[in-house]
Amino acid sequence: MSKNSIVLLGACLAVTAMLQYSPVQAQSKNSAESQKNTIADGRVVAVVKGSKILFRDVRIAHQNLPQQYRGLALEKVYKPLVQQLVERRLVLLAAEAEKLGDDPSVISQIAQARSRILEQTYLTRRINATATEANLRARYEAEKVHVKGADEVRASHILVETQEEADAIVAALNKGGDFAALAKEKSKGPSGAKGGDLGYFTKDKMVPEFANAALALKAGEISAPVKTSFGWHVIKLVDRRQGKGPSFARRAPELRQAMAQEVAEELLGDLAKAAKIKFYKLDGSPGTPPAIGPQDK
Predict the structure, then answer these.
(1) Are 209 and 271 part of one and the same domain?
(2) pLDDT averaged over consecutive 10-residue blocks of the chain (297 residues)?
(3) Nearest 5 degrees, angle CA 81-CA 117-CA 276?
(4) In this structure, is residue 257 part of a structural domain?
(5) Are residues 70 and 40 in the same domain?
(6) How many structural domains comprise the chain?
(7) Stated pTM of the model
(8) What's the domain range around 233?
(9) Which of 99, 173, 268, 283 is the 20 to 30 Å CA partner of 292?
(10) Residue 292 located in a structural domain
(11) Same domain flag for 116 and 259
(12) Any domain includes 146
């Protein structure tokens, strides 16, 4: 994919990223949407020197708020939004009074902005038509078997303050002592009451010294004393299993981005095939046009 295509796609992905799946956000958004839908777009919310600001302007401003504020009830942000629109209208009217719209550089900037909006809207609509929740869930299910979670282990431990205490516990266990009973009697950790059982965990959930020692064991094995910032541990590995892969909610943004890139690449490829494209080098001589659309990896 060419650098220019990546730039165009990046702008489009910035729009689609706002559609990330979240049940809580969706519920809040629906509440805000229901409020907006009860008010006509053409209703006047303010008048500045005879120039009307409509509720449609408020609705669009609300949609353009940062993601974390879009779910707020409209009445909480209504007045600040109108204030912002009034301030912008004051500046706009001042600019129009100075006839800045006739300035060639401004005309050029407006034309460029119009082109970018059209490009982004066209791509976004094509992407959204494909990257539906149903399609994302279908891809999630298809890929789920290949996307595995981190290894998980279930371990128990006995935590004591000194190496001498830990060595004594290892010696007792080697003589047939019961791990759970010793944990309840000797362990200083909160899991002692449960026989030292820590449940299942992944490597990243424990301090490195403890995690490395636990994951190096086989089921049923007991470690030599392990020193961490908490004290001295004697660890018993109870079980080992493959962890579950990430949930749909966690993978949805990644899946949407991948699908958006695929749609954009295919679309650009089709458009390029149907168009006559000429390319000129810096010196003005004809050259080979850049490759557009999906490329062999």
Answers:
(1) no
(2) 45 40 42 65 96 96 88 90 97 97 97 97 96 96 84 95 96 95 95 95 94 95 96 96 87 95 95 94 94 80
(3) 180
(4) yes
(5) yes
(6) 2
(7) 0.58
(8) 151-242
(9) 283
(10) no
(11) yes
(12) no
Q: Which pLDDT score is estimated for 263?
A: 96
Per-residue model confidence (pLDDT) at position 18? 38
- Residues 215, 153 contacting (CB under 8 angstroms): yes
* Cβ atoms 158, 187 nearer than 8 A: yes
- Whether the CB-CB separation of 226 and 232 falls below 8 Å is answered with yes
Residue 192 DSSP symbol? G
| Domain CATH for 231 | 3.10.50.40
- Max alpha carbon distance in the chain (Å)? 94
Q: Do both 200 and 220 map to the same domain?
A: yes
The pLDDT assigned to 185 comes to 95
The whole-number pLDDT of residue 296 equals: 66
How much is the pLDDT for 261?
95
Shared domain check, 100 and 9: yes
231 shares its domain with 182? yes
SS3 sequence of the chain? CCHHHHHHHHHHHHHHHHHCCCHHHHHHHHHHHHHHHCCCCCCEEEEECCEEEEHHHHHHHHHCCCHHHCCCCHHHHHHHHHHHHHHHHHHHHHHHHCCHHHCHHHHHHHHHHHHHHHHHHHHHHHHHHHCCHHHHHHHHHHHHCCCCCCEEEEEEEEEECCHHHHHHHHHHHHCCCCHHHHHHHHCCCHHHHHCCEEEEEEHHHCCHHHHHHHHCCCCCCECCCEEECCEEEEEEEEEEEECCCCCHHHHHHHHHHHHHHHHHHHHHHHHHHCCCCCEECCCCCEECCCCCCCCCC
Lookup result for tokens 């759970």: 180
